[in-house]
Structure prediction request, 220 residues.
Amino acid sequence: MYVLIAGGGKVGSNLARILIRSGHEVTLIEQRDPRYSQLEEELEHQVHKGDATELFTLERAGIQRPPDVVVAVTGDDEDNIVICQLARDRYSVPKLIARVNDPRNQPYFDLLGIAPTVSASGAIMGLIEHEVPEHGLIHLLELKKENLEIVEILVSDKDACAGKQIREVAFPEGSRVISVVRNGKAELPEETLRLESGDSVLAILPPGKEDELNRVLVRD
Prediction:
C-alpha cells in the first residue's frame, strides 16, 4: 500500500515506522520545525515539511497519485477534518482514517461522513467499561457504514435472561447474538444454548436499540 500520514507526533511517527517495516510505502507530513528535523534524520525522503491542510503540501507529498489510505492524526481535530475532506473530495482517496482528539468533536466527523475515526479517550473508556461489570452494556465496535454496532453484556444470576435459552429471549428487531463467551471460550449462539451467570453475550444491533437489548437481557 501507499499510505500518506498527516501528523508526525507519536501516533503518526510510530505508525509510519510500523508500515515501513511491513514493506509499505509511506509519506509522512509534519509541520513543526524541530519535530520535522528529528523525523527527517530518521526517515529521510519519506518525510515532508508543511501544513497538510494546504493543497501545495499535499500535492508535493504525492496525494495526486492517489494514496490507498490517508491517515490524519494531527493534534487538531479541525485540521484532521479538513485533510480528510480534501483527500476524499478533491483527490478521490478511497480510504480515510482520522484521529479524534476531543470526543466532543465526534459528531462533526460523523456529520461529514469521515470514517473510521480513532479516539484514544473512547478506547480507554471502553477498556474501563469492560473491567466494571456494573456498567451494564459495553460498546465494543461501531460499524458506521453498515449502521450497526457490536456490544457486550455480562450476565449475572439476577438478570432476566439467566437460565433462558437464546430462543426464549425477545431480542430487539434487527439484532442477533453473534457469540457467547463462557469460561474464556466462545460458544456458538445456537438457539438452544442456555445463558448462564458469568456469560458474556456479544450481540450486533442497530444504533438506538441498546436500551431495549439491555432490558430484555438484564432488566426484564
Observations:
- Residues 115 and 152 are 22 Å apart (CA to CA).
- The chain has a mean pLDDT of 87.
- The radius of gyration is 22 Å.
- The chain has two domains: 2-118, 123-219.
